[in-house]
Each structure stands twice: as structure tokens, then as C-alpha cells.
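Q: C-alpha cells for this one, please.
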Amino acid sequence: MKKITLILLLVLGFVTSCTDDDDKSAINSSIVIDGITFKPNKATYSNQQASFETQKKVKFKISDEKKEEYLYIDISFPASQKNLTGEYSFGIGTADDLLVMVEFYAPEKRYYIVGHSLKITDKGDSNFSFEFISPEAYDGINNKKVPFKGTLNGRIILEQTQ
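A: Here is the predicted structure, written as C-alpha cells:
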């Protein structure tokens, strides 16, 4: 009986140690850009150095590393803001504005996503949703407008910066 218990414990220890604990993100995507269906398997975000003391900046990196597809979402917002929830405008503004820049990279492709705004909902515990309001996408290599649609939501892991 002791041998069976010991073997069972060893097997359970082996099974649980083989799970992938490196990335605890779980991101859902309905994004399609220029015919590319983006299904990321990793999502992180980090605090960045802002341009002004009265401003904060965060960079989201959402990726399918096997396909080498990366969606970068850079946001800036007033330092007084308590969480990341808000409707962020594409384009220029001041340190008091909610601003966003979005780029998508795939092998031999580069896209810029613009439009009216990006609505981010910070659901707490590193869970976010991203809704593009009247989006447009431009092929940065062939200099043309391309189709873009979709949303993102799920758990995104905070990376600590030095």
C-alpha cells in the first residue's frame, strides 16, 4: 500500500510540474486584419517612462510568438487616473488626455491601427477588454488602407520593469 501511495504521489508531482506556468495570460481575440486572424497565446503589459511628470504610460504586448505576430498598444493618461479604464483617442493631445497608439506586426507586414478611439475596461486582477471604436488600419509597407475588425479581452500579465 505504501508503494502504491508513493508511486501515486510521484506521478501526481510529475503531472503538475509539467504544466506551463510561464505564461498565465488568457487572452481572447476576434481581431482580423487584412485577412490575418489574430489568435494570441501570450499577453503582457508594463509601465513605461512617460514624457511628463503628470502623465503615466503603459505598453501592452499581445502576441502569437509561434507565428511571429505582435499587437502593441501604447497608452498614456493623466497620473491622477486610478486605473486604465477609459476611452483613448488616436492622435495627438496633452498630458491630460487619454491617448493611444496601436501597431500590428506579422512576418513581412506592418499595420497601423487608427480610428476614433479605443475603449479599455480595466476589470481588475489584470483582466482587460479592448473595443476599437470606428477603427481603420493601414498597411505600412504597401501604403494602403486594409480591413480591420475585432476586440480583445482577458487576463494580461504585468511585467515588472527595472
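A few notes: DSSP finds one helix and 14 strands in the chain. Residues 2-17 form the longest helix (16 residues).
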